[in-house]
Amino acid sequence: MLDLKAKPSGSKPPGRAVLLLAKSAFAAAPMQEMQRLTERIQRQRGSDEHVVFAFSEQGTPALRDVMLELRDAGFREIVIVPLLIPLEPSFRLWLGRTLQRWLRDAPGVWPPIRISAPPEESPGLHDLVGALIDGCSTQPTMAMPDRPLPDASLVPAQKRRVLVCQGGPCNAAGADVIWGHLRSEQERRKLRNVGDGVMTAKSTCLGPCNLAPVLQVFPEGTYYGGVTEAGIDCIIDEHLLGGRIVAALAYEPTGRKQLLRS
């Protein structure tokens, strides 16, 4: 278990929150699956623990929103269980750094936060995999479906594009969280249909790795570095909707190496 330093819980009531963390979900069905899993775990753990789930990237509810709700609810501690196999070192690294930043930046009294070991370190994992293999005998044999004709597609009319770098340094700096927040705001604020319209996409390395996490806004091609959730909100308001580059976060191609501004 990894402990993250937090303010003491003081007079908070007993009870532990358990957060089942998945990476992303793009449709209602996987979100409902997470809900069913959460309910089963809740029945297993009992009334002294409160089990919830969240997504670190795209999906509802978002990790940051759930963490703030758990803090305000007054649990004595929060245990985060990443449900990822394999659990990449970069994921654990950015998760720890991002939680530390939230502890620092979000006002309020935080309980102790712990991150469980990855699933592959559990001694019961081989039994689970064995049960899944044995259960295949009760499942219908898959047959190759008839190949359907491709559906027609519209060429996107949106004029703005936002690329979020997914290179190693950017992922370690929290690009997954930034991507999730951007996608959530895109949906919440209907950015595809507001103003010039906005499309978002992940990208391989965008280049300025030491300015991580990095994103780029087109058609201007503006680079933004060191972006947080607050930075995303500012870029949406000023650049995507207002047409004004956010100078405090932008980095011009000067031809010389630049340091990340604090």
**SSE run:** EEHEHEHEHEHHEEEHE
CATH fold type of the largest domain: Rossmann fold
CATH class group of the largest domain: Alpha Beta
Oligomer: single chain
- Catalogue the unreliable spans: 1-12
The average pLDDT is 87
| Radius of gyration of CA atoms, rounded to a whole number | 21 Å
Main sheet? Answer: 5 strands, mixed
Total domain count: 2
Strand order of the largest sheet: 1-5-4-2-3
Assigned CATH architecture of the largest domain: 3-Layer(aba) Sandwich
Keywords: Lyase, Metal-binding
Organism: Kaistia terrae
Protein name: NAD(P)H-dependent oxidoreductase subunit E
Pfam family, one: CbiX
What attributes characterize this protein structure?
262 residues; alpha/beta; Rossmann fold; 5-stranded mixed β-sheet; 34% helix; disordered N terminus; NAD(P)H-dependent oxidoreductase subunit E; metal-binding; CbiX-like; Thioredoxin-like_sf; lyase
Layout of secondary structure:
Layout: E1 2-4, E2 16-22, H1 28-45, E3 49-55, H2 63-73, E4 77-82, H3 89-105, E5 113-115, H4 125-135, E6 160-165, H5 168-172, H6 175-188, E7 198-203, E8 215-218, E9 222-224, H7 229-240, E10 250-251
Parallel strand pairs: 2-3, 2-4, 4-5, 6-7
Antiparallel strand pairs: 1-5, 6-8, 8-9, 9-10
